[in-house]
């Protein structure tokens, strides 16, 4: 449908008619608004980009053309929360003409049954080829002073606890919200990161994020807290520019997910659906990973990454065979073999080793360029012996590439480092970017690093390597296109519990925010929450009950999951550990049974290719009773449910290890009313009954 | 010898006693001075470094230790101006102790018979490991308002004409001296680059430079024009820091060469001698190169680097086989074969091809990151056919890697690009860094890029590839250690004549300044100096006579020399071209016969492994008569000299192609009085007579 110059607004609805997107030009300025079931979600909001040294793309437009279309396709992810994902939307593409400069820009809107995605496109044209973005000016005008679940906007870290407050309170709370980190660069008293969760006074949930962040700068949101308008705030480069573009090019999608039902936010597939289909012909080498590793002992300070206590080393010059080992090195051949034994015994896919390679003595806080070579082991880590031992035990090794933020150094070594992995039985790598970025002046989330992370993932695919990137930009659904990007950290994970501790509610918020873009390597499974028991010099503790740690394998979706604790702690609680051994990491179906951000989330997930289900509940600092129905089960089947729950007197602070395990028979008619301790939760494995004999001695729930 | 705290100065002399270096602490501040034959060259000058976020290394020192030593060794360069180089110096190493911080610093002085080198060293120690340099504060206090031959200090280009003025006049002349360039960043009204030539009122020449610039930022000099003190001014990085250091580490050497004889400056080996010996076991693959190439036709605008006239392309997306060629592409298979034929016929080693690869449509001025892939040819350049043709003709191909300053992109492709060279018969590469550096904010001469240039050279050696780096940091003698760094441009070369023109005196200054650090790919040999004859849209001309172009092969020392003009211009003057064919590019001996910076230079050089000599004179814009003796020849031999000189009415502007050739007999007793036109000169090939019959019909000079 073609609308003539300056005339009425363009409108499209979602396939089910629930969402309505309106676009129009107001005095040549593009604006949009979004409503859901008649309720405004995004009020009139401006669109456009401010350019450097050339007229901006903010106004002076006329509509040259509009195109509407529909898309409806169901696709299967290589790994995921569900087997089939339906991508169904109505699309409106508006071609804008900026008369004075003879330039064109397209804004493409896709309206789904649970929200909206839109992006800017710069088609091939004479008058707009190379341009520099000074700032993107995409607004999200909110209809009121919503409750926000936010972390400070920061160009270099996302490792914050969430704050829950009215939007109007963000400014006053910002100073207290900012925390130290190996690399941190906040930018505004009202700047926040995405994905951002909001909840209106009348109980509507809204999520703002982006999808398909490629060759562009990561978007934060700056709040105009007088008018309650969020505006895009891109990450600058070393000289203050926000993006370098060459048309034809598209920006990432900006997404608005909305629902009255919190679970719908969690189950939205908008982010994945806005990404391109899988780019790889062969994905047979991409497999979910359940792993253990030499890591928590260093995080807790029980052992070290470094081999010696030298204050500094020089790769290729320091002869480690001549140095005096500190005796605290974690990644020794013997210790790693112990973990390999444990993994093999308990059915884990892989063993991660951190601290295996030269350079850990002075890896952090020195702005050291040639910090690692990713190839040279310490004298007490025998690459060959580990390789052969793991191979004989049927266990894969997981590589660790800490870069210390020195990305040129990483790229210089990357091919050899990946080949080293292939040669030695490492098919996945945990990469890290701890500390300020080198080249100095760049930020973790700027276009320069977004390009680098992508380069690392695509090159890894050439070697059939899966990548789990920590401290990288938070994901935006790119794993649909590049499924070897199997996870990121890119938020505050379990390690922070060992450093300083984290609020008990943290995992009741993360799925609404961080996980909207992709899975998180949260590294749960801590059974010994009192860190002083591991390292007397620490007085920190993990703000969780043991039962909730089991639940996290279900509530923190990831195809890559670590049983992070020391093996000896699992050996002390083999009955509880059984859940971690049993829990699947790839799913045919997922249901949200209960969800209130900041309070609790309960998921039920069906293990891929089976009739088995797993349920998990994570609970905040308030003791609560969870009430769920098992109506997701097949009506004609019986199941054995093993319920791992908090004891009545459990408490994340005072009595974390008090748990109960009971085995019961369940059917689709079953219901559960389960107490969850403060910082607690429960986990349930639900196995289809194949033989009646299994039911012997068990009662119905 | 150990001196007690605060006592008298330390002094060492050169081996021949001519130079005297004095070091002392003045109120804990290190100072030095240098005299030559009793005449002060450098007055009392401070030493030290200003550090960031930590106490500086500027004062508060005591002398902990001094060590004196002598070194005398003669070594042979892989290629050079002479066969043997004597490295003979007296050394003083002063260990300074900064009490308050318990830190040590060593200043090492080496005094040669023609000057001084000194550097800072930071030994391994507890209290000084990682540090950031805010500014190096090395002074060179001059004894008066000397004449300086200078170019503006600039973090991104050296492609300036030289200014000759009193030091006190630099400030007033700076604005006029600054010229446009694809990338230029000046920093001060009295900032100049090195190497800097000075001449005192009483005729003493002084050169200030640095040697062995590795893992450090390039040094400029800022002049305090009240006190006539030059001080080191390092190139900043994107965030304004000047260097990132990890002890143990040394800085580059700061050099002061001095003599009453201008020729001694030219013949000084201090820069090479201060560099480490050759790092390669095998150097058999490193050979001087005389080449022609598809280049001048693009520089003059006769043809293009690009294949099409598209305003922009995207590598991997633009299908060049579907585009419309402009018909102006220089690097076609046919054209290259023509050059290969010419090279084979006239005994040239190699043919350079520029514009062979996709990406030239939008290579400059766009800040384009993925600008070249260094692998993919345009449709009309057949890599295989060119390879086989060159091989059959016994000619090597010379690769071209223009990076457009996008150094991450170059490094990402470097291994494959070098392997491509090996696979296709290219054993040398001309690399380029035209335009502002990407990562943005970095400069061509900062530590980040110095590290990159070194990386490129060392990696090239793994592939047995020689590197000729244009727009890179000016050399500092590193080719002693890495002799595959066979040349740089890194100054204003012949191409500028085609762009705008260059003062006729330029090549009478360059050997005193730019060439002190290493050879220059000056690309001389232009026979048709009127560019409008090649491209009617240009009105520029080369400020030279034809005869002077021949001389440059002798006066502009380089193991890599181009006959840069179009073959058809050589074919019009085959008699003159004979000199270029005959001239050697590697030498057993070199003599400076006449030298006055800014006016003229005359060299005589002995071709390696022969008894043949070549003489060259370059002359400024004033007609002059050169008077030389041939007493460098063997007393017991006869030689045939072919003298290529300006005709009496030659003039670089009005009559450049008027030259004369005469063949005469010469001996060690011969003398020559030869007229040189404005912008002129002469070249002489002197061949040992092997058979008396050669003398028939010839007269004595």
Account of the protein in words:
The structure is a homodimer of 701-residue chains. The first copy, chain A, has 701 residues and is an alpha+beta fold. Among the domains of chain A are: 272 residues, Beta-galactosidase, Chain A, domain 5 (Distorted Sandwich); 178 residues, Aldolase class I (TIM Barrel, Alpha-Beta Barrel), CATH 3.20.20.70. In chain A, 16% of the residues lie in helices and 33% in strands. Chain A has twelve helices and 37 strands. In chain A, strands 6, 7, 8, 9, 12, 13, 15, 16, 20 and 21 form a ten-stranded antiparallel beta sheet that branches. Chain A has a seven-stranded parallel beta sheet with strand order 27-26-25-24-23-22-28. A seven-stranded mixed beta sheet of chain A has the order 29-30-31-36-33-34-37. In chain A, a hairpin with a 5-residue loop joins strand 1 and strand 2. The longest helix of chain A has 17 residues. Chain A is globular and about 70 Å long. In chain A, 54% of the residues are buried. The N terminus of chain A is likely disordered. Chains A and B meet through helix 7 and helix 8 of A and helix 7 and helix 8 of B.
